[in-house]
Amino acid sequence: MKSVCEFKIRHGSAKYPRNWWLEQFQSSRNTCGTAALGCAAAPRTGRPVLPILDFFVFRDDFRGDEENTAGGGCATRFWFVHHNQTHPPSCGTGESSSAAEGGYGPYLFYLFFAACRAVLHDFVRYTFSGAALAALALAFLLLSNTAARAQATAIDGPVNITVDTSKVRNYVAPRAMGMHTSVYDNNLADPQIPEILRAAGITTLRYPGGGYSDSYHWSVYKMTKSKGTDDAGYLAAKADLGHFLQLVDQLRGTAIITVNYGSNLASTGGGEPAEAAAWVAYTNGSPSVQKAIGKDSTGYDWKTVGYWASLRAAQPLATDDGQNFLRIAHPASFHILYWEVGNEVFGNGYYEKDKEGFEEDLHGPYDKDPKESANLRKKNHSALSPQTYGKNVVEFVKAMKAVDPTIKIGAVLNTPPMDNSWGPDWNPAVMKECGKVIDFVILHWYTGGLLPPDWKMLDNPSYLSAPQRELPDMMAALLELFRKYGGENTQNMQLVVTEMGSRPFAKQTNPHVDALFAADAYFSLMEDGAANIDWLELHKPSFLDDKNKPGPVYFALQMIHRLAQINDSIVESRSSQSLLAVHAVLRKDGSLGLMLINKDPKNDATVKVKISGAQLAAAGTRFDFGPKNQPNGYLTTGGPTAGLGNSFTVNVPAYSITDIQLPKAP
Questions:
Q1: What is the pLDDT of residue 428?
Q2: In CATH, what class is 159-170+570-662?
């Protein structure tokens, strides 16, 4: 893996022909401080990003006309030096060459650095003036390492893997291994679910589930009717809050809860902070605390913290008064720490020119006629805006933390930069209003291209390469948002990814690719510091079917669990082949866990591994999961393996995940 710097060439000019660019690029290659591209320290860490130029990549699909920016500040700005320019001594904007013959940009290319991609602060982005498209393309072609800049199509030789246990990339967060659950799940309360989830390493369950969250009222187990219609959705018999928390208790895990931003209990307006505060009181409060929550804007009285906590602690009544589902005989707090304010609120119709949107949001009215709803949404446009959402998030934070100041509360963002084409102002507008008071941001990551001719079939190679292609851009954009809008809160900001999977409704030729993607994506996001990651969803064939039979993603997460425990160190690992992903974990007992993911559907991989920073035993344990290694039950199979130590060679079957556990040398 490589770190990436992205450069945008906006204006073309014949003044700087191919040979001039070649001279600049070649003189900059693997140098520092003396050529067109100088040395620079990574943001925050002050660590140099070296060597300066490993290879170039040219791409012409950049869209937009953003202003020149230097995401990491003065210390990280790189410059191309024109014939008559000197290296700028301080931050500023680069000199733009005049538009002349040779055409205009924008032209986009990458510079790759030797530092690992997942060290977030090594990634920065800039805009520059440049030469014509033809000259640039030729320069890049001459200078590029073609094998490195393009996604490989096959593994056709040995793959070199290096691991350095002395370089810690991140830690396995306590809530990282999550799973999306839903109130419409008829199997959520199946008695075997806790044991099944523990075997897969799941610690955290998201509730109440996606778009339902903005219509769901936890205290009465009812839904607001959808978008002015008579559709109240479906609620499973045993998926109410009481049953869900009992599942969490049996799992010996925790939850991340999405409070209702879209609708109030009366279904007459948007979600109420008081309803969310009462939810915090029910899960986290003490029966002895009589702090008033108070009335919401409709006049509904949400009583006191102690009222809801006492209801949680109580035994069910002999005659159900309608609240027995909340009486679960649990006096102790559940200490639910992470809370989301709404689900995909950016889909509320604000960006839909002729539609009402897909996410419930009664901050603006609906009509039973979708066309009239769209008109009503336009008339109430400001009530659906990112600014309004951001301001309302602040009110939710105040109300919920008044009940429990230890909780963490997050705001919904769209996924940058992939979603910027339709909602480019959502993230900065939301963060400007609430960035200084929230604790984390929420992204949903669905990925993978679609194939012609009908554009309905999932493109497996693009899906499997997404962790390496998309996460650097995503993390860089988030860091820039944190820097601009977080203030003193920036250092504490976290990321959670509460929905993840392949592109919705895409057809798959091989469901096994979900396993390869999930293993790589969970590990990559953990390396990037995500506090929680949730696959969508618990009962979906990729994880568990409606008979609780495990699918490919179940075993992929179990393979992570075999290597990594909470607070283990994720250490630096690199692969020479884009179709062979690697992740490594140094465990607290000094042993090393190594995951190798072969994304080639046809070819086995001969993998040469070299490990530094720790002395490891020659004998260990190996587990495999793939088309040729299918478990019979709920556990992946493995056994002892020899010939390991700090340097060894292994074979990884096609489309498979291999785990190797290496004990510390005696």
A1: 97
A2: mainly beta
